[in-house]
Structure to design on (274 residues):
């Protein structure tokens, strides 16, 4: 087997297009893993909201949110949104680059900052929860890649799915619910690199399944055996020995009736005697 050239990166769709275009000029296969606005849906009527908040925040604050699979925004039924922004402070613990960008997003957002939002010096920003965020809000334009969690109110699971389907395919969708019906709705009606139920981030620890994205979140996959399959090229080969020639005589012209019959019914081929 021969190693093939491939690349993996975390970035945006435009970055992926630059890499793919450069690779195409050299006919080089690539595997591209891009970040995305990975959504979270909380089925508030069928899950423990405080436990969901605890797991979401744990995943969000790995490396201060600067990880490709970090939960990006939360879709929550309007009637239950208060439960999330009341539960977050109870489980939130204090957790650097992109400092000015993150602060500018917080300045521009039309949502309401209900927790955090303060900066310490030039390298630290508090974990921040912003509620009542609209789909056209600056916080929803690109992957945040920082410790901000926008809370986007929806009417129900159907609206949440419609929102996800109307945006670029995310690297991962996180769904918190005890309802098998809700789980099936997301399995059957959404697309993503990975779907994770009732936790965040843990998919990276399961090397028995592939990890990768679709569309704007990349293509190809890796982890465990899938990394080996991705980064090697399986070259097939065949060795036809000269001793097989008696079996192959009928493939040459002239094409007689005997040859036609032999090729139509290989089991009837008779090996010529030497």
């Amino acid at each position: 087997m021969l190693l093939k050239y491939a690349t993996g990166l975390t970035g945006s769709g435009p970055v992926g297009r630059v890499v793919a275009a450069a690779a195409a000029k050299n006919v080089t296969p690539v595997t591209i893993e891009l970040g995305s606005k990975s959504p979270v849906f909380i089925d508030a009527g069928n899950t423990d909201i405080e436990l969901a908040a605890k797991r979401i925040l744990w995943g969000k604050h790995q490396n201060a949110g600067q990880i490709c699979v970090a939960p990006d925004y939360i879709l929550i039924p309007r009637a239950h949104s208060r439960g999330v922004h009341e539960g977050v402070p109870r489980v939130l613990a204090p957790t650097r680059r992109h400092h000015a960008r993150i602060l500018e997003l917080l300045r521009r957002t039309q949502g309401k900052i209900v927790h955090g939002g303060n900066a310490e010096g030039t390298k630290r920003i508090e974990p921040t929860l912003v509620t009542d965020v609209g789909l056209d809000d600056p916080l929803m334009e690109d992957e945040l890649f920082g410790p901000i969690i926008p809370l986007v109110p929806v009417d129900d699971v159907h609206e949440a799915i419609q929102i996800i389907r109307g945006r670029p395919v995310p690297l991962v969708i996180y769904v918190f619910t005890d309802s098998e019906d809700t789980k099936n709705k997301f399995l059957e009606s959404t697309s993503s690199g990975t779907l994770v139920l009732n936790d965040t981030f843990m998919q990276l620890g399961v090397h028995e399944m592939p990890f990768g994205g679709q569309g704007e979140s990349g293509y190809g996959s890796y982890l465990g055996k899938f990394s080996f399959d991705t980064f090697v090229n399986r070259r097939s080969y065949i060795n036809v020995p000269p001793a097989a020639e008696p079996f192959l005589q009928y493939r040459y012209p002239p094409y007689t009736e005997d040859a036609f019959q032999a090729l139509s019914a290989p089991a009837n081929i008779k090996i010529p005697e030497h």
